Fold this sequence. Notes:
The complex is a heterodimer of chains A (about 325) and B (about 270). Chain A is about 70% helix and about 0% strand. Chain A has about 325 residues and is an all-alpha fold. Chain A has one domain (about 5-250). In chain A, helix 1 (about 5-35) packs antiparallel against helix 10, helix 7 (about 175-195) packs across helix 8 (about 195-205) and helix 11 packs parallel to helix 14. The radius of gyration of chain A is 21 Å and the shape is globular. The termini of chain A are far apart. The mean pLDDT of chain A is about 85. Chain B is an alpha/beta fold. Chain B has a domain at about 10-105 and about 170-240: P-loop containing nucleotide triphosphate hydrolases (Rossmann fold), CATH 3.40.50.300. Helices cover about 40% and strands about 25% of the residues of chain B. Chain B has helices at about 50-60, 85-90, 110-115, 125-135, 140-145, 155-165, 185-200, 210-220, 235-240, 245-250, 260-274; strands spanning about 10-20, 25-35, 40-45, 65-75, 80, 95, 170-175, 205-210, 220-225, 230-235. In chain B, a hairpin with a 2-residue loop joins strand 9 and strand 10 (about 230-235). Chain B is globular and about 55 Å long. Classes of the chains: A mainly alpha (about 325), B alpha/beta (about 270).
Amino acid sequence: MPEQLLFAMEVTLNGLMAGVLYALVALGFVLIFKASGIFNFAQGMLVVFAAMTLVGVQQGQVPFAHLINTIFGTKVHDFGWTVPTFLAIIVAGAAMVFVAWIIEKYILHHLVGQPDIILFMATIGMWYFMHGFAPLMWGSEVMKLDVGLAQGLNDPVLNATEALFGYGFFLDNLDIVAAVIAAILVASLVLFSQYTKQGRAMRAVADDHQAALSVGISLRFIWVLVWSLAGVVALVAGIMWGSKSGVQISLAEVALKALPVLMLGGCTSIPGAIIGGLIIGVGEQLFEFAIGPLVGGATQAWFAYVLALIFLIFRPQGLFGEKIIERV
Amino acid sequence: MLDAGKTEETLLEVNNIEVIYNHVILVLKGVSLSVPKGGITALLGGNGAGKTTTLKAISNLLHSERGEVTKGSIEYRGENVASQSPSALVERGVIQVMEGRHCFEHLTVEENLLTGAYTRKDGRAEIAKDLEMVYHYFPRLKERRKSQAGYTSGGEQQMVAMGRALMSNPETVLLDEPSMGLAPQLVEQIFEIVKSVNENEGTTFLLAEQNTNVALRFAHYGYILESGRVVMDGPAQELRENPDVKEFYLGMSEEGRKSFRDVRSYRRRKRWLS
């Protein structure tokens, strides 16, 4: 097989893996948008907050250490213990559920029945609030996140492809793990929303708030539920991104990459978020590989957005977005 | 006052309630009514008379529309229910079928029906039994059980909304404008079903309806609302024969009196004098 084609295949595979990470962030948006019609701008911040909480708990950091030290003149920094990874993930997950509950109780609950734009503005407010709050709680240094996921090149893939094509594919172990975990996560979310009572209630709320209330579904409970799910998804995304590039506030900007994914896949479709992420991931890499050299490179900065723009013109609901049912 | 329906036990008692939207718009100006167990009670009146608001005040769906009950009380089985959440009320057996068919468009017909059983805790077997019961009353829904509700016809959607409410195993159904936008034949069919559910399952109905003619044929007792007040009430039979009702709601007139205002001042005078 020609060298070029093999190289393109490798690029594609790497693109798929990167796409999975985009998809994980987009998934959080979709969950919330589906159930409440809220475009949660703060999803990226949830990712950072989840990752920071995980690292903080794992390393036994004292939350708000800086604040405590300033007020009381103490010099606390950490508890001097480390928490096992598994336990730390559970604590961080619980923290995300708590955040969901707080958001519902103190923000969303008071905005019921307000226009969508007001709710959207509220999530922008949340973004900035957490932008300040997360470093206040866990400090502003770049934190290293290590939950024991495999790192480095995947040798079996390298060897197998070497033997098969005489050309070894470089694939990152972490990316492969991320892909597997994302697949499991999506499958369980789809099963949950299709086949359980709460999942059905979630979809009912997404369709018609008033009617859902009238059959006795508690909107408050469902909202806490979806924000919790989005928080857990954010935690998973945070672990993946954090393991890759360290945890710091600027990690929140991965959310911006999730926007074109949403437009491509459709704001209301869980599988759409995944396919959209993969298309963007692969498209980005292949485009850079094929066209990049002709236009001076760095196409990754804009390719996804241009693709999303073109999609908006021809298929505004995205690839898998819910068709707008209109009866005439 | 004459007793309506089959029993004399009163399930729902609304006492002189006032409802204000957005803190300024007074919609109900003291509505009182009582719903006897096992009967079909009709709430009649034109557009904007306050029928829907009355039902929503009872089922407590006003809050999400920025409305609130500012005066009066609502009692169900003698207990004040004004501050209970809609889901608590559904659990107590009071469920509303909203006007305009509010189905869950992207859920299938059967999934729609199952959401009605959301608050139930009596197990899958009982729920499956009630699903069969609903399909018995609405055979059309059984044929369409796998279709997305958004793609079914208007009449089918009304059936979905009603069937969904029945799935909660209710004692009282608040039915808002079941005839809205449906062909006369279908309206008749829907009311026949209401009647047979009422007779066979003993479900109590409070229904708001503009179509006075049909409603008074199927109901036992009726209240007539006009701009947020009850202006007349009585057994359906009596209302049907009342000359005012005949003239203004049933469109049967012998005299030349056509103006609405005339009758209102006439009634007001009557009320002042009595």
